[in-house]
Design brief:
This protein is an alpha+beta fold. It has a single domain, classed as Nuclear Transport Factor 2, Chain: A (Roll), CATH 3.10.450.50. Helices cover 29% and strands 46% of the residues. It has three helices and six strands; from the N terminus they run ααββαββββ. Strands 2-1-6-5-4-3 form a six-stranded mixed sheet, covered by helices on one side. A hairpin with a 2-residue loop joins strand 5 and strand 6. It starts with a helix and ends with a strand.
Length: 112
């Protein structure tokens, strides 16, 4: 089934807010790369690493990301979010999602 980049970005956000780890991970490529900007550091690679990071957060059922702005750049979606329920919250985060076919292949985060 084909989904648009916007639909995929929204599906992962909905799964994040529902604390549904399986639906969340289903949006990402098996070899997803997640990093931080502006340093360009890679935080982790792969769905398994993502599962290890997000499962404990979702188990607490407190994390929530409110979408404040979204830009559609074709195969790249840029989301601005207000994140609560995580250490250091509230956080203003920008997530840059790079799509490959029907999956998110790379994510870059900028946090304030």
């Amino acid at each position: 089934m084909h989904v648009t980049p916007i639909e995929l970005a929204q599906a992962q956000l909905d799964a994040y807010n529902a604390h549904d780890i399986e639906a969340f991970l289903a949006c990402y490529a098996e070899d997803v790369i997640v990093g931080e900007l502006p340093a360009g550091n890679v935080s982790y690679v792969g769905r398994d690493a993502m599962r290890q990071r997000y499962t404990p957060m979702f188990a607490k059922a407190t994390v929530h990301a409110e979408l404040t702005d979204r830009k559609d750049m074709g195969q790249v979606i840029v989301d601005c979010e207000h994140v609560t329920g995580v250490p250091g919250a509230p956080i203003i985060a920008i997530a840059i999602y790079e799509m490959r076919e029907n999956e998110i292949a790379r994510v870059w985060f900028i946090r304030k």
